Fold each of these.
Amino acid sequence: MRLPVTAPARLLMTADAVGGVWTYVLDLAHGLVPHGVQTTIVVLGPEPSPAQLARARAVPGLAVLVTGLPLDWAVTSPRDVEETSHALASLAARLEPDLVQVNSAPLASTGVFRAPLVVACHSCVTTWWRAVKGAREMPPEFRWRAELTARALERADALLAPSASFAVATTEAYGLPQWPRVAHNGRAPLAHVTTEQAPAGYVMTAGRLWDEGKNVAQLDRVAARLGAPIIAAGPLSGPNGAVARFERLCTPGALSPNDVAALLIERPVFVSTSCYEPFGLAVLEAAQAGCALVLSDIPTFRELWNGVAAFVQPDDDDALARTLRGLLGDTAQRLRLGAAARERARRYSIPAMVKATLSAWGFPSAVAPTSGAESAA
């Protein structure tokens, strides 16, 4: 065990430009600047867009290395992942960071990292399969991914999870001797939020629409029963070849953060029907805007939003349609839930995320956060 890190002046982190990890690493890197930490982001998979790179350039001292290395969850061979892990270790040896944090566990499965190694558990195949497919046995292409994940978790000097619920799921899935430390994701509040205008008369969701774990098909099924449009923002195809098609949703595609924010500040009813969600950044952004939340009744959402959102079972179409219709027709209830969600969202700030992360690294200026077990109790 090579932690604690007493002065991590140079941090090396992995990222991809496909989903929420990109947002996470930029927010964390920005929040670490006042603590004297300079970050280098190693990008795997598709190149970041010009808008993504522009946001990265706004982080003082941040370096972005676009490697062209494949995404570990989009390849079809364990050798590809192992070679990527070795390539990352070689890169780290050249750059000599004080700390390495990989944001996808298999990337730490085989490479030998000289610096202390942190694995941030944002998602994994075993927990995804259990939540989305139930108790059915995983196919071979999932089993080798799970084996690489287990190997990485065992080799890490520290493990992080974005919620206590996901720390529990990860511990149970891999039989870990102790829970990952919990550092809830955080976001900066949206600008230009106003509560003077009435909430918009539509429903919205956002995320990787191609991901079966998002369960957007349920929302598509109930759309015809609402009498109001449903905007589903996000990509319909993924780098792993998955493609989603919907008949009744308005799907504008992957929107820029500014375009998403422009919709959220109109305060539509925001819905997430996910059956698998380690945290849910889109829900946090909607809560910051004061949207009334309708969420699937899964452990993560209960942990984060219990008491300030309406909950429905992921497979109960009637309850989902009934809840959405009820909120669309009840402005007072929408305003109450939106205000409560906005107040709860204050807990999930970038400074809070940074403090918990520094504590997990053993950084002396950080105050130890509540343990995963205590948070889930």
Amino acid sequence: MENSVITLHRRVQFCLASSGGISSLLPITHIAFGEGGVDSDGEPIPPSETQTSLNKQICMYPIDGVTYPISPPTTARYTCTIPAADLAGASISEAALVDSDGSLCAIKTFYIKRKDDAVIFTFVFDDEF
């Protein structure tokens, strides 16, 4: 079961950028988080490339930064921090990379990460090409 996907929207943008249909891709600026990434048994639900929103989005934060690991060289690694004072009690199970226009570019689902009060969460999201 694949638990991450590059959205159709982003793939269309890649196609247009590589063929000259648009001059550049919009940058990833945020990561959205949600509580709807698992089924009733707590198993991650595979995301769909046609999704335009998370199943149950609860917040969105600006990315802290991006790095480019040496291996594989086709990866952009985004980090995002949920501050200690935010989302106490949340059961995060889905995340999405969001571009500067607000469109979802990649989606991941995962086992529930419960956010305790006064705990900082730092998420890493690898966008692999």
Amino acid sequence: MYKRILVPLEHSSYDETILDHVRTLARLCGSSLVLVHVADGWVARNIQNLNLRESEEMREDRAYLTEAREDLEGDGFKVEAVLAAGDPAQEIAAAAEREHCDLIAMATHGHKGLGDIIHGTTANALRHLTEIPILMVRGVKAGK
């Protein structure tokens, strides 16, 4: 059903929730995985325009992606990892298209009402930017 699944990771405890779901789905479908993290700090958002070097945060994000990729490869999955920079929703949509993914599977925070307005929602913005199906799984905070 799904040949290539894009999995946005945010470098938080929410990632394990979506990775647990994706492991099962990818096994059932025989899917390959594309992990993407969008660095969105000041350097990341301006790296190309101002010809900047990667920040320490971006290097940590790259290491996190590599670790996640290696963990999934150790479980027998075919995995690629992409570090993007900029607006998360726009970069996730672009990566899904560029990488020829047929599903985006992501964890959500489940903000409600005022929380959505204050924090914004990548998932909400993303659904307006792509026609690729999106699987949203409510993440679990660490310690719950």
Amino acid sequence: MSIPARYFFTQEEQLQITQAIRDAESDTSGEVRVHVENSCKGDVLDRAAYIFKQLNIHRTKLRNGVLFYLSVHDHKFAILGDIGINLKVPPDFWEGIKETMAAKFREGDFAPGLTEGILQAGKHLKIHFPCQKDDVNELGDEISFGDLGAKKI
């Protein structure tokens, strides 16, 4: 029997990932979210886009949010950046981070792989979206788990 998404990462690993989100968001106005669920029926990018909207990542002031989406039972994951970021980074930017993460995932190092991906994204967020003096944390840093509803077609 497979481990439910909620328990895929240990408490220690969840703290490590949450700290990586905070570190990635330091000195930047960019926002990072992580969502983990059991399964993804269909295309992983479509599902990630749906979750992106459900988590209101598209509502950041500068459209500079990033979603790291994982479907643990299906062994699928995606990284989605909002339009503000995608206009500033090279076209293959997310693919490079995804490849780094996939190498770790193949070794069974899921928390370190996710952490490394988050920190890489944070480095670029700091370059393109430096922290503003009136910056607020627009999105929570906690990991979200589970099915956020069926995708409407």
